[in-house]
Amino acid sequence: MAMTELSTPKTTSPFLHSSSRLSLSSKLHLSNQFRHLLLPPLHTTSNSKISCSVSQNNQAPVAVQDNGSVKTKKECYGVFCLTYDLKAEEETKSWKKMINIAVSGAAGMISNHLLFKLASGSVFGPDQPIALKLLGSERSIQALEGVAMELEDSLFPLLREVDIGTDPYEVFQDVEWALLIGAKPRGPGMERAALLDINGQIFAEQGKALNAVASPNVKVLVVGNPCNTNALICLKNAPNIPAKNFHALTRLDENRAKCQLALKAGVFYDKVSNMTIWGNHSTTQRGGLLIQKWGRSSAASTAVSIVDAIKSLVTPTPEGDWFSTGVYTNGNPYGIAEDLVFSMPCRSTGDGDYELVKDVEFDDYLRNRISKSEAELLAEKKCVAHLTGDGIAFCDLGPVDTMLPGEV
Amino acid sequence: MAMTELSTPKTTSPFLHSSSRLSLSSKLHLSNQFRHLLLPPLHTTSNSKISCSVSQNNQAPVAVQDNGSVKTKKECYGVFCLTYDLKAEEETKSWKKMINIAVSGAAGMISNHLLFKLASGSVFGPDQPIALKLLGSERSIQALEGVAMELEDSLFPLLREVDIGTDPYEVFQDVEWALLIGAKPRGPGMERAALLDINGQIFAEQGKALNAVASPNVKVLVVGNPCNTNALICLKNAPNIPAKNFHALTRLDENRAKCQLALKAGVFYDKVSNMTIWGNHSTTQRGGLLIQKWGRSSAASTAVSIVDAIKSLVTPTPEGDWFSTGVYTNGNPYGIAEDLVFSMPCRSTGDGDYELVKDVEFDDYLRNRISKSEAELLAEKKCVAHLTGDGIAFCDLGPVDTMLPGEV
């Protein structure tokens, strides 16, 4: 195994002890002034070993030979461009093999919460090194660099790569998870049909890109709204990825519902279990109230619910409980129309996959509500037929407007 | 021990299975429409136990008898106003006794990251139940409610109370930690002396309030800038709290410096240790670059550094390493002026307290840089003499401007 000089950092001299010597090597890092950054001096005492050291013959980071092919990291960011022997660390620290996680809308507020949770190890565990692949728009590239800088500055030990880019065919390369958060928000006066089309095109393109370059068993979680229909579009454009791997986020609805039910029941929310969100994610109700109070949409709790949704797939579901997630209807036992993405109760063994909970029984009231949600999703599906390969779109969404301007 | 009916939630009937029955009891919760929230039906099957249940004779939450006095929670929020027997849970789950954590500037962006980290258990550990006391301005009270709603919706098991308020004498009651983040940002054209005075008055008042109502051994971390001088003002107004308990956050500088040094050295940042930030927190340099890239200040990484600063006090410092924090100079071995808040290398046994690392030796270069930082802090101290009980203020801050408009 090739050990680069970078994996043996405890070299001897000279100690960096003046801020003026810090002229940074990264092309993306501009700051070379550290007025208040005063590093430890040369002298070491018996009690305190000072290990901030720089090798005299320090080389620029080099590409690592990986399976015979030179790995180039064109889009890597700052300190994450450094080459080091992660395999050795994986062995030394009993770490798992690094996973690649793509996040779209990476410069947005939900991602600004989510990325730091992913990087901290609180989602995939303290033994799972992580590479983050950040997808943004041309317009957001500076902000993406800002996010990458903040991730660097957070010194998360498990975060080993941060790449930024605007082309899903590059960013999605080999990703094992794709968290698709970015979507155009609905502008004032915009028709729902227009929004469906604009966002649908984004998710059609991302589906194609995932199909072409992602890990064949990539798990895809669609957050950008309308998330059920966006997820359907995405999976239809990724025929080589199992349709079962695509999810639409309804966990925020589940969490909110659990909290409200706890309030109603006069118990703490940890006493509420077996909550099912059937059908589609709703952007109205509590989300709207939050925007009104808060002046912005609920980024922090949305990020928490994304974490919950991922954890539900990578940890075994507690005995007797289930979780809700929007999944592809293909042989569902509830008589819900096939070929939709519809939220249903699921369980997981923790391997990233899930099974439907098949024995929840409906009464007429629930049946009726589910049918309404089903009808909404069927109507949305007809609007985006041109994006799913189902022919010519016909859009009649009816008078019910479930989507709020400003809600992501 | 009194068990309220709320601690026995697994009552029998009727099951809530229609969204129309959800009319919420909390006065702060307005939404009563749950179009897409379709709860599990009455019927339970052999495989799936449905435990969303509401007792028929459900009572409104009542005050718990606590040490003979009725505990009223005037400012509590939503589901956190529920009364339940936390002591029983502490025993059942081997939880520690709940701690009260105050956060000022709670509606701001740094807090929006920090509060969720505190509530998730990632700072104080998975066995530490937490009460969050959110201090904001009158102007921000709606946003505080929004934050509380998002905390509710996140269903953090360890988060047991959220109180919101605008009066530090109420919010700081019995707090064991006070994270003072709120400060007025510097407006365009504002003189540094004016900013020092405006923020100084805030921290003088908060110091008085902590002195009057907080836990006698409260730990105080000042983040609002200029944090060193604000911390000095705060501790001077809290004579009954040990001066050693006050900290000014220089951990963000430490983290940024470690990252930059790693880049320079060509090693991953986890190889850099024993970094000392001497003197005052600097709001320029990388922070300024981030604002430029990102369009806002670095809330996420600041929150991470606050977490790091707290963890450094509540977990033992790794052998041979240290961390930087701005502390009260009282008998320091480095000849730095006494009666300042100055960042120095420290170690902790993990009990919330710390000791200075006393044997770092300076060369002339470092001595000179430290003297400059010392002179800046002495000048700031003279500007706020009217707030520290040191007589009449005299303000001559010199030409060096370390504070950037827009940086928090």
Describe what this molecule looks like in 3D.
The structure is a homodimer of 408-residue chains. Chain A has 408 residues and is α/β, with parallel strands linked by helices. Chain A has a domain of 242 residues: L-2-Hydroxyisocaproate Dehydrogenase, Chain A, domain 2. The first copy, chain A, has eleven helices and eleven strands. In chain A, strands 5-4-3-6-7-8 form a six-stranded parallel beta sheet, with helices on both faces. The first copy, chain A, is globular, with a radius of gyration of 24 Å. Chain A starts with 64 loop residues before the first strand and ends in a 20-residue tail after the last helix. The relative contact order of chain A is 0.10. The N terminus and C terminus of chain A are likely disordered. The interface between A and B is large, with 126 and 124 residues.
